[in-house]
Here is the input.
Amino acid sequence: MDRQPIQVIGGGLAGTEAAWQIAQAGVPVIFHEMRPQRYSPAHHTEHLAELVCSNSFGAMASDRAAGLLHEELRQLGSIVIAKADEHSVPAGGALAVDRGQFSQDLTETLSSHPLIDFRREEVRKIPEGIVVLATGPLTSPDLAEDLHRFTGMEYLSFFDAASPIIVGESINRDIAFLASRYDKGEAAYLNCPMNKAEYLRFREALCQGEQTELKDFERETAKFFEACLPIEELAQRGEDTMRYGPLKPVGLSDSRTGDRPYAVVQLRQEDKAGQLWNMVGFQTNLRWGEQKRIFQMIPSLENAEFVRLGVMHRNTFINAPQLMQATLQFRHNPQLLAAGQLIGTEGYTAAAAGGCLAGINAARLALGKETVTLPNTTMMGSLFEFISSASPKHFQPMPPNFGILPELGEKIKNKQERYGRYRDRALGDLKNWCSQL
Here is the structure.
């Protein structure tokens, strides 16, 4: 029997995962991506699942929130995590990827799938039938307006930003040193050390640096997302704020001298060849000329060559608690599903997780089956339960974290042991859930 194709709109991480899950269930997909016909302010390539900020999917260890989400997605056959594993680059305890190879491979894999009709076109109106919206936080204006008409609500907004990327050979290795924190795992970060005087001069320059002006409507409607603050915003919050955040020196020492710096700027490898390095935690709204001037004050980056400077843009998301079910279906139209940052989940892995569940449920609708929710003891299940049931008044994007999981039956003081128990419960419950599908 010929089935009506499901339409997936948006070729980011969520849309890519959703299209894959639907096709793997034997249901045809029309997969829409507007690039290269039209680019968002944050994208630079036409490839699927382009990583526009960091190249890291977060901690790999399964007793960390991101790592547990990785393991859950592996159990569910995630194409995004499979390709991330395949194209991983050294990043200490994090799952980071060669972003070019990662995105290109996903583009080739999905565009060659026999059940995926990949169309490079902009969708300006929500189609009829079963649809997965995965247009991300920078949905094109026409489609955003149609979604506004459908929901009757304005978008919520916050500001997000991407960190600069530096050419590896322009980094002064006489100063920068390779090390992992507490010498744990592979030494995958280049560390640029600062003494107190250097740090204070750098902080003062950040506080006084000229920023890109925000438009009036952006000032009025948007705010910073606390998990992704611009480095200059951190600098302005206090003298030591950066030293307790992205510039913390704890657990790092230069093996050449044995000294622990007063502050450290860390660089994470971007590609497998080690030719490109990302400034960890340096998302910024500084003007590009100011970025070069101020960031070259960092010891070892005095001659840094930037292949990408930091950018900042407004992200938008819907008020999911008022609109969404934990199945990722809209309450007022169960044939319309959504996933990714559009619904207020934060981070690459969470976007892939949303695409995974939205794809599974879209396929189940097409096959005449009931839609499903994941056990709330899993990181995925608790995340989607949260975004569908949180207080609508103060809703803000939520990353995966152990604080949203239901408590264990007993109190465990040791955090690592407690998180390990959360992991064991989640993966066991997910395995049982999968066996009953």
About this structure: The radius of gyration is 22 Å.
